[in-house]
């Protein structure tokens, strides 16, 4: 029978930073367009640039689950 209180059988906890897939650098308009499922074209890039200017990096967080 396994003793769940025995910590030697538990794997270490994964650090929070490894659980998230956030970009390591700046978010670009192209990143935002791709995350939204839109085609990369001048109109969509302009939309993404406006959205990034207004919302910053949070714009990407709002699109992703």
Write the layout of secondary structure elements.
Elements: H1 16-19, H2 29-35, H3 42-55, H4 58-63
Biased composition (Polar residues): 1-11
Region (Disordered): 1-23
Describe it.
By secondary structure, the protein is mostly helical. It has a domain at 27-65. The protein is 48% helix and 0% strand. It has four helices and no strands. It has helices at 16-19, 29-35, 42-55, 58-63. The longest helix has 14 residues, at 42-55. The termini are far apart.
Unreliable parts: none
Categorize the overall geometry: elongated
Q: Number of helix segments?
A: 4
Number of strands: 0
**What structural class do helix, strand and pairing data support?**
mainly alpha
The secondary-structure element order is: HHHH
Beta content: under 5%
Q: Span between N and C termini?
A: 39 Å
Task: Outline the biggest β-sheet.
Answer: none
Amount of helix: 40-55%
Mind telling me the C-alpha Rg? Answer: 19 Å
- Overall pLDDT score: 80
Q: Keywords for this structure?
A:
65 residues; mainly alpha; 4 helices; 48% helix; 0% strand; elongated
Short description:
It is built from four helices and no strands.
